[in-house]
Specification:
Length: about 350
Amino acid sequence: MIPSKNMTKTLVDLDEEPGAPLRRPEDRRSRTVNYLRLSITDRCNLRCRYCMPDEGMDFVPHEEILSYEEILHLVGVSIGSGIRKVRLTGGEPLVRKNFLSFLERLAGIEDLEEISLTTNGVLLKEHAAAIRQCGICRINVSLDSLKPERFFSITRRDVFHRVLEGIEEAERLNFHPIKINVVAMKGINDDEVLDFARLSLERPFHVRFIEFMPVGKNNAWSPERFITAGEIYSRIKTLGELEPMEHGAMDGPAERFKIRGARGEVGFISPVSNHFCDTCNRLRLTAEGKLRGCLFSDHEIDVKTPLREGRGDDHLSLLLRRAIQEKPDGPGRAASTPRKCIRQMSAIGG
Ligand code: SAM
């Protein structure tokens, strides 16, 4: 097949023949990209106000969503391009049919060093044991309020207690770490910052505060709703000394601390106030098969079409490496400016 103009450029840029062993999975800023976030569906059983409209969501037609077979194939190829860690996200990954048999197959892929799951926790209680049996122990549960009425007002669904039961079941089954992800929003839930942090005192949870990002098609971001990770840190400091935790090679962008004497940790993720582009090791694959190098950039590379056209692994591998190479240098203005993005967060996977 004759390479398209873009392909020609890619081959020149990469300075490598397709199929050649990759020297290092580095982008042009020498960032090592070894982490793939996979959104396996854009469907969700919650309707968080900052993420999705209550009605009228334009879901991707089922036939346009990557099949499990296709995802597994692409993960296999991505390993040849340096990916070692995969996180499953959505939408809500647990709502996709036959998720557990998919997970079992994913867990069987050699050379994948880490698989983790991000969930809203609604279906966690019933699936936790089977997930654990697949050898998965790392889990992130998104939870923005510890108050049932407020949870309902944010998510538009009355399932707060199911999420808590899911987290308890994960703790009972020794998932580790159990990360509780909180999107902090001024005037919405920032008055609960200390309550969330206190959770880490008695329980082994890693509570992580994530800055509200102006990303997504219908995002509800505004400067008035924004609170920096730095401000949250200052508030939590009042609970006790914050001891910094060491950063592992596979760790994400959270700045991690332990409140002195705590069983768990607190962490701060600051994509807006202090973006971590210098150390970003992530690539994203959307539910409909587009590779994205950055949440804040709409630059995408389609891998589904060539996959469905029967293009070989060499070609797919080239596209993966191109996506790594073309990771934006930084967020530009986008990280602090409200903007529409071509996709909902639910399709990108957060
Ligand atoms: N359903 C799963 C869940 O709830 O974790 C996975 C998908 S969800 C899109 C992934 C994460 O993105 C959630 O923690 C959610 O709170 C977060 N998220 C969505 N929109 C966001 C925004 N504008 N700013 C910051 N985080 C956001």
